[in-house]
């Protein structure tokens, strides 16, 4: 690395994990040559991660949903003066970012990954591009925690809520989704949907393509793994430790990521659950005899009232809004009777 441009380009590739073994040797030789080089590398890494984190945060604040994931912001080929000016501006930002931790007396830098958390508001969805190019769609009231880069032989993220994953294939680097109640979904490269909102609700995994293993605590308190095949849905009950598997087309389970609601002979309680996530409402089913009802249909941009009227006309259900004495209540309540 004989000039500043080569250094900047290789260091940026290094922070992204895209360097080749010969390039890694070049970088390590340059870092070990001078303590000033270590200081520069620390500043550049802080800048790179700060810009990337700010880019993701901006997308979540301003976009309701993405049809497809856009490329992440890259920082490339700035002059040394440009780097210094931008670093000075970013150092005032709270460090919710990863840094390159340097320890006195060590010849090589130690890279420390910081966890980033992405959240969606009620009734909103978003998409995230992970460091390994895995695409994640987050549904309403969901959160995803992941590191600024994946180290070692495991790519691990934490999900609370619902997400659709399109995982970048890597045969030697497992991808693990940790969910509430000590359960996990283990994959190597595949597409699947996970719903895991916690509390007392079941956890479900729907496999679209590839192969996944669902790790859970069974009714004897021991951890067990159950493998899924494509077009199969697994539902886990944390209270009993039981699991059930169903054949499914996957259309109904993943339609939310495309802004649709697809019902295919879907039971009423599941229909109401899906509508509740989409429109941020709470349903109260006062007529338990309606649980045997099921519905078929596809909805895209229709308002909730129009969808409920469709159900009223096509079946015997009725519905009404319930007034709440608490004006601070965030969700509207609808009684179905």
CATH fold name of the largest domain, please? Jelly Rolls
Count of domains:
3
Helix percent reads: 25-40%
How far from one another are the termini?
73 Å
- Using only C-alpha atoms, the radius of gyration works out to 24 Å
Question: Helical region count?
Answer: 7
SSE ordering: HHHHEEEEEEEEEEEEEEEHEHEEHEE
Kindly report the average pLDDT value: 80
- How is the main sheet built? 13 strands, mixed
Number of strands: 20
Weakly predicted, low-confidence segments: 50-106
What is the CATH class designation of the largest domain? Mainly Beta
Topology, element by element:
Elements: H1 4-16, H2 21-33, H3 35-62, H4 80-90, E1 99-101, E2 110-112, E3 115-119, E4 126-129, E5 135-138, E6 143-147, E7 154-166, E8 174-179, E9 183-187, E10 191-196, E11 203-209, E12 212-217, E13 223-228, E14 232-237, E15 242-247, H5 251-254, E16 261-267, H6 268-279, E17 281-285, E18 294-299, H7 304-314, E19 319-322, E20 332-336
In short:
With 337 residues, this protein is an alpha+beta fold.
Can you offer a commentary on this structure?
Residues 117-212 form the FecR protein domain. GO terms for molecular function: sigma factor antagonist activity. Residues 260-323 form the Protein FecR C-terminal domain. With 337 residues, this protein is α+β, with helices and mostly antiparallel strands. It folds into 3 domains: 1-112, no CATH class; 115-252, Jelly Rolls, CATH 2.60.120; 260-336, Phage tail protein beta-alpha-beta fold, CATH 3.55.50. Helix content is 27%, strand content 33%. The protein has 7 helices and 20 strands. Strands 3, 4, 5, 6, 7, 8, 9, 10, 11, 12, 13, 14 and 15 form a 13-stranded mixed β-sheet that branches. A 3-stranded mixed β-sheet has the order 17-20-19. The protein has a two-stranded antiparallel sheet with strand order 1-2. Strand 8 and strand 9 form a beta hairpin. Helix 1 (4-16) packs across helix 3 (35-62) and helix 2 (21-33) crosses helix 3 (35-62). The longest helix is centred in the N-terminal third of the chain and has 28 residues, at 35-62. It is elongated and about 80 Å long.
